[in-house]
Amino acid sequence: MAQDEQQQECFERIAKALEPHFDQTRFTLAKRIAQAEDGRLVEQTEMPIFEELNRLKTKSQQVGLQDRVQAAEATFSPSGQAAEAAQ
């Protein structure tokens, strides 16, 4: 399989895995903004939005890392033949 195809598959897997997290964040942000009092939007939403986006950043990194680790693990034989061949 070509490198571009592998990257595309990786991209699609990660994007799909992130979808529910982005949806949850989107609804949380919309709720926070909608609940803010008139004239206090920035004051009441600045930190909650920052914190929510920071959680999304962390979750995105976790999902991406987990996908990459699983893909790397899948390239090795569970019987240990790859390790034996290297010796």
Key features of this structure:
disordered C terminus, mainly alpha, 3 helices, 87 residues
Brief digest:
The protein is mostly helical and 87 residues long. It is built from three helices and no strands. Helix 1 runs antiparallel to helix 2.
Describe this structure in words.
With 87 residues, this protein is mostly helical. It is 84% helix and 0% strand. The chain has 3 helices and no strands. It has helices at residues 3-35, 41-74, 81-86. Helix 1 packs antiparallel against helix 2. The longest helix is centred in the middle third of the chain and has 34 residues, at 41-74. The two termini are 26 Å apart.
Mind sketching the topology for me?
Layout: H1 3-35, H2 41-74, H3 81-86
Helix pairs in contact: 1-2
State the helicity in percent bands. over 70%
Number of strands: 0
Largest sheet: none
Number of helical segments with 4 or more residues: 3
Query: Uncertain segments of ≥5 residues (pLDDT<50)?
Result: 83-87
- Sketch the topology as an H/E string, one letter per element: HHH
User: Compute the gyration radius: what is it?
Assistant: 20 Å
Residue fraction in strands: under 5%
Net shape = elongated
Secondary structure category = mainly alpha
What is the typical, i.e. mean, pLDDT?
Answer: 89
N-to-C span: 26 Å
